[in-house]
Amino acid sequence: MIVLPECAYPAYFLELEPQAVKKALNRTEEVLASVKTKARELGVYVALGIALPEGDRLYNAAVLIDDRGEIVHRAYKSNLWHFDDRFFTPGEDFQAIDTKFGRIGMMVCADGRIPEIARILALQGARLIIDVVNLVATARDPKDLMNQQYAFMLPVRALENRIWLVTADKCGMEGNCAVYLGRSIVVNPEGKIVAECPPDRPEILICDVDLEKALGPEDMKLPAACGILSHPTPELPIYQKMTRASGPVSAGERLTAAVQFRAGTMEEYLEKAYRYIHAAQCSYCRVVALPPFDGEAELQQMCLLLQKVIVKDDIVVFTACREDGGLHAGAVTEREVRTPWKYGEDLCVEEIDGVGYCVLSDESLYTPELPRAAMLMGGEVLIWMDRRAREMDLKVAQTRAAENKMFVVRASSAEQDVSYLVTPAGATACTTFCHAEQLACALILQSDGLSKTVYPGTDIVRSRIPNAYKELIR
Fold first, then answer.
1. 296 burial class (0-12, 13-18, 19+ CB within 10 angstroms)?
2. How many Cα atoms sit within 13 Å of 187 on the Cβ side?
3. What pTM does this model have?
4. 417-453, pLDDT tens digit by residue?
5. How many of the other CB atoms lie within 10 Å of CB of 90?
6. Residue ranges per structural domain of the chain
7. Closest by alpha carbon to 410, among 374, 452, 440?
8. Is there a shared CATH topology between the 2-219 domain and the 225-468 domain?
9. Which CATH architecture has domain 225-468?
10. How far apart are alpha carbons 257 and 430 in whole angstroms?
């Protein structure tokens, strides 16, 4: 199989020379015929990114041509990026198909930022997903080019669905303004990049892919709250919060602390928690994420004991402990205790001091539908209470933050681990040292969690096509 980039013909930035583009699009069938002939002659499959006219519409398409020279599949870009909407109509259908190698799926570039799309293809049996891309990037030196999708999103797409993922990208510059990342990659089902191209020059990458190593998504029942994935956009709590957001930026500022420590007993946990709550209050922190206590305790009682040392009325402290066989979490302020996040119960978002918070524990962040649903329910800050250290934890946190444009605050009690805060841009704003007992803090701006614009023309909420995601709600 040969995989070529997004809009390999005629170009991606179609605005600069309209007459040349029109002439090129009139030759689309001729170009496709040439590629089909070559595929038949060589006995190979070809996945080709192409601007594809259909009637009075133009699609940013990925076309799959088989070894007989026949077009066997088309995938249309759904999550239009930046100026895409000047030229292209979005697609709304995601279908995996059978090939002589096995079942595969295709998507186009920014569709890789939408966890629902890869998940639907994987649930349909795809064990290889081809993503034809034109990933844009910036740097002073082409060798330093970097991009979110390459750095963490695409590896996490492969990991969370346990499939192979192959991307083909352009390198260089188009129209003296669109700079491409290069770095075409092959990612295995563990989320590891096993082969890649350089960022600064053309290259052919050859790699063997064993589809038998791809197991597909784990069979799990999503909580009822994930039904929100297919709700119409105007009905979404996050959309309503976005449209009514107003007031001074300073009103949404929250210095937020991610705390790292371990405790063997409840007495030790409370002693350390008291110390860090005091330090947080002295540091003007308004949000504190304590690590979970990995021992059996009564959450309500633990929260009441923590409440005794809270002396500021604008601070909220998150904590968790094991109760009834699972991790339960709560939020504590000077005035109240809330304990809505309980193992085995439905997903929920709590509004505290005007901010929407959701708590997820342990491996639950690895299930993309959960943070996605939490964001749509109005969550701007996701607190991740964790008791284990895994190799892909940070990339998963960065992906959840960037794909939902929300803050992720991780508080870990695991040995040889770190706690940190990730911004809606996927950047690590602060982190503790590995294996240190420490408080690390960074500033949250609520406006950043309510702005869902990734780029002009691309919005995490408004650009969604909820009707196309109904397949996820089973």
1. exposed
2. 28
3. 0.93
4. 999 999 999 999 999 999 889 999 999 999 999 999 9
5. 17
6. 2-219, 225-468
7. 440
8. yes
9. 4-Layer Sandwich (3.60)
10. 9
